[in-house]
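Example S7 (structure tokens).
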């Protein structure tokens, strides 16, 4: 198995993701600089990590969405390659048009950094199959702009088509309908604000994030 973690100027969870994937799955993980034009050949999983790409100038993820590597990330996703955007990576996926909606300032206008309980809303995705009937997971949030927003028609479509994958048990940021993570219509692109890379071993307080990476690669 091969995975690629994209590194943008301002990423700060790229190495966290690399270690989490390696320890969780045994996959070979490459760090890919955002100015590269192509992903490694035969990649099975692409991860856009958390951080502050381009210092969050303009809007979170807006500049990173135009980085050269994103053309090949989009192409890989269109071929069905599993693609995950975590926190800032979720913001980038939305700005790149790979997922609907937007991430706004947290409703209390403060930075959140704490473990959160999540409801696994759809166990039938390639990212959640490994939870095997478990309906709750614990991961960590760390963001100031994690408030998921979309118009009502889009929210209804996401709900109706099973694209809401994770919800907050206690909403920490005002996200519409408690949404913490969604997938695209094809089911191979996931964006989530909580960090599975900070919850992949029991010593970190939870190993539930490891299941997400294992599920993504098991279906490759």
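Recovered sequence:
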């Amino acid at each position: 198995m091969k995975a690629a973690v994209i590194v943008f100027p301002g990423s700060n969870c790229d190495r966290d993701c690399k270690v989490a994937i390696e320890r969780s799955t045994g996959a070979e993980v490459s760090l890919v600089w955002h100015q590269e034009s192509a992903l490694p050949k035969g990649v099975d999983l692409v991860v856009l990590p958390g951080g502050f790409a381009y210092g969050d100038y303009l809007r979170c993820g807006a500049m990173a969405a135009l980085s050269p590597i994103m053309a090949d990330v989009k192409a890989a996703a269109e071929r069905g390659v599993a693609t995950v955007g975590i926190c800032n990576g979720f913001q980038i996926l939305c700005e790149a048009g790979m997922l609907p909606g937007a991430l706004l300032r947290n409703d209390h206008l403060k930075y959140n950094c704490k473990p959160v309980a999540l409801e696994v809303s759809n166990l039938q995705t390639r990212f959640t199959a490994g939870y095997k009937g478990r309906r709750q997971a614990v991961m960590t949030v760390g963001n100031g702009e994690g408030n998921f927003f979309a118009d009502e028609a889009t929210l209804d479509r996401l709900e109706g088509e099973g694209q809401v994958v994770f919800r907050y048990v206690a909403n920490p940021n005002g996200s519409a309908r408690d949404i913490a993570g969604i997938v695209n219509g094809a089911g191979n692109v996931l964006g989530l604000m909580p960090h599975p890379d900070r919850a992949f071993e029991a010593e970190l307080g939870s190993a539930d994030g490891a299941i997400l990476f294992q599920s993504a690669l098991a279906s490759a």
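Notes on this example. The helical segments are 14-25, 69-78, 88-95, 152-160, 208-218.
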